[in-house]
Amino acid sequence: MSLRNTKTAFGRVAKFFHWSMVFGFIALYVIGFTMTDLPIGPEMFERIALHKSIGIGVLALAVVRLIWRFSNPNPALPDTMAPSERWGAHFSHIALYTVMMVMPLSGWAMSSAANYPVSVFGWFTLPNILAPSKAAVDFLKEFHGLLAWGILGLLALHVLAALKHHYINKDNVLTRMLPFYKGN
Amino acid sequence: MLRLFTFLTTLLMATQVMAADWSVRKEDSKLGFFATQAGAEFEGAFKTFSSEIRFDVNDLAGSEVKITIDIASVDTQSADRDSNITTQDWFYVSEYPNATFQTKTITKVGEGRYLAIADLTMRGVTKEVELPFTLTIDAGVAHAQGEVTVSRTAFGIGQGQWAANTVVGDDVRIFFDLKADAQ
Ligand code: HEM
Ligand code: HEM
Question: Is the C or the N end of chain A the one with fewer CB within 10 Å?
């Protein structure tokens, strides 16, 4: 398996990006849904800070991942797929790339509007991208919370589609994205 | 008669120079702080404070500054945080509504640069602080700027679970940027 993609297979780098993103999202959801239930205290702030740091990590990864995506060939989808399925796959991937950036940006904007500047793992602090505003915080909180559910729906489709390829179509679409799979 | 008049005006002017009281221009002045939360620095300000300033560059021994800060007027651009700051764990505003800053000595350290030794009282605890500041006086308007770093826990600001510096840093930079008119 090479670092770069080929016309038929994902390379190591694309797989690394895909699966680190998966872990990033799992962590963000687990922390995101539990942190705000904690009583106000240092532990709550630590969790929120961790959520923000990982979220900004996802944003950075998404940018690098997209650059990599466009400087590499992308493995072709199987010929057996109908045009509507191809479009479905294509649009859902565009949607996933979009939310990988919109979701962290909405969090960053929310923190900025609340004048809680974001420190990334304590390494450096991001500038605020919005002026402090209560109305903006309320809106972005709602947006971030609703989009979180929207993304869950999108991911459910994504994972179900991958499983359908594997178990129903019996093609290599799932296995070619698996990190240590040697069978293709 | 003319002599008496000259004498009186001279006396009047002399007392004016000696008294040198200043009144702060609220709209052009700022008294605030930088604190850190989860590793990131944020800015806050106290909207309401009063001052008694007697300052004369030629009479530093007779100069004195007293500032009284209304803690409840804190504004960190986050209503949640502002209301938290006033609770018992932090500034305990119901018990200690004000912080005060009272100079003991002011010395000149350079051209337009001074050092104040002062008592800072917050949450009922008084500590001596050394505050360097710059001052320019132009056409009867004084412009003073300074900053001092204090340990919030030394004043008991952040009790119990907040005493550890893991989430809220211990160092707080208090700054001011004041414009004042000669009285
Ligand atoms: C892809 C990235 C991200 C995902 C998937 C994500 C997901 C979530 C989820 C699921 C919640 C809980 C929502 C709820 O309880 O209704 C949440 C809350 C939150 N997120 Fe994110 N997040 C991401 C990025 C960020 C970033 C980058 C920041 C800030 C820099 C951030 C700041 C917050 C904040 C402050 C909350 C709490 C909002 C509240 O008080 O209800 N998030 N996030
Ligand atoms: C366990 C969960 C997941 C599985 C099983 C899975 C599976 C797959 C598979 C098999 C592909 C390859 C599609 C092809 O061959 O063209 C793929 C592509 C992709 N996945 Fe996932 N995925 C999962 C989670 C995620 C998550 C959480 C994200 C992002 C938030 C994501 C974003 C993407 C994107 C953007 C692509 C398109 C890659 C490209 O062609 O540029 N996936 N996924």
Answer: C
